[in-house]
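Supplementary notes (optional reading)

For those who missed the lab, this is the record we used. Protein: Putative membrane protein AbrB. Length: 164 residues.
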Amino acid sequence: MAVSVASGGPVNAGLYVRYIFYERSSVANCSAVAIYADIHNFNCAGKLVYGSVPGAGSESGLQMEPRTLKNIKVLGSYTLPSSVLLVLFLLLLAFLLTLWTPMMLTTAFLSAAPGGVAEMGVAASMVHADLSMVSGYQLFRVFFIMFVISPLLQRWLQRSAQNQ
C-alpha cells in the first residue's frame, strides 16, 4: 500500500507510519495527520505519546538478530549486572543533580540517562518530567560527545598510532 507524501512521491505505508510515530514523534506530525484525515477534536498529545512508546520498543527489538546471539547465557550474565549498575549509578547521579539544582528526581534521572533524545523526551512526557530540561541535557550530551570527546579521542588514537 502506497501513501502519497507532500514532499515526494508514493512511499510504503508502513515506513511512513514508522516515520510519523517513531522517528518524528511530535504533536505537530500528529496534528498534520489529524488535519489530513479530517479528524476534529483529536487529542494529539496523549494519543501520540501512548502510541510512540510501543513503537520505540518495537524498533529496538526489530534491530536485534536472534541468530547473532549464540551465547545468550554468557551475554545475559554480563548484561544484567551492567544494567543494574548503570541504573544505580544514574540514580546516584540524579540524586546529586537534585542536590545541586532545583530539579525533580524524575527529570534528573531522565536527563542523565543514556539513550536517544526522542526516547527520553517520550519518557519525560509520560512521567510528567520537565521536557525542556531533559531535552536540553540530552542535546548537551550529544554535542559534547560530538565536538569535545570525538576530537580528543581522534588525537589520542593518532598519537598512539605514531608511537607504535
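If you only remember one thing from this example: DSSP finds seven helices and two strands in the chain.
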